[in-house]
Amino acid sequence: MRRYGSALLLVLVGAAVLRISLLSDLYLRYVQAGLRPYLVVSGVVLVGLGVLAAVVRRDRESYDDEHAEGHEHAHPHHGPRVAWLLALPALALLLFPPPALGSYSAGREAAEVAAQGVGSFPALPAGDPVELTLAQFSSRAMYDSGRSLKGRTVRMTGFVTHGDDGTWYLTRLLVSCCAADATTSKVEIRGAESRDAPPVDTWVTVTGTWHPKGKLGTDAAWPPVLDAATVRTVRQPADPYEQR
């Protein structure tokens, strides 16, 4: 088995990549949807290289055995056994894919106000409730001089994080490329329907109205506030991240 160690590692890594990208939507926990074709191609190439390496190794050993008669047989050199530890991450990804980032990652990021000036935003679509991402709601709540959220009912989906004194937030992580560059967008939830905070990391859809807070474009306006009319538990979406 040790003779084919490098080939086996290539196949394991390739199979793990294909497991999360070709055979499921698990890759969305780590990267954007647009990167799926590249992951699939990478997985196929790694598996192909592993199979090719195994075939070349077998043929080389057969050739060496045929020409070893009458000569001192040299023992093949094997790499250190510790190299097999490289198989553990691949096996973990293949058998137990890590979950998407959640409340722990969101809690590590301090409040940050985007370098964005106050100005007007395009009108919201007609009809209530209007579906918004947390990033869209936050931008309008903090920077929209036209107050386009005023009097409108909005609906957003995210996971629950807890603050101090019973405060809880609807939270979502935003990514540009992959989970490694994730930043946090969150909205404080108030109102009669928010008194009993759901457990941390529970996914919920909240419907409600904007609660103005602080001066636009200042730290006092962050995080924005929503007065909840309904809070409904939902399943985690296939793509748990919002895109920038």
Automatic annotation (TrEMBL):
Keyword Transmembrane helix recorded: yes
Keywords annotated in UniProt: Membrane, Transmembrane, Transmembrane helix
Glycosyltransferase found in the keyword field: no
Transmembrane segments: 39-56
Source organism, top-level taxon: Bacteria
Residues covered by the DUF1980 domain: 10-108, 141-241
InterPro entries registered for this protein in UniProt: DUF1980, DUF1980_C, DUF1980_N, UPF0703_membrane_permease
Family matches, as Pfam families: DUF1980 (PF09323), DUF1980_C (PF21537)
Cross-referenced PANTHER family: UPF0703 PROTEIN YCGQ
Protein name from the UniProt record: TIGR03943 family protein
Source organism: Streptomyces cylindrosporus
High-level lineage: Bacteria, Bacillati, Actinomycetota, Actinomycetes, Kitasatosporales
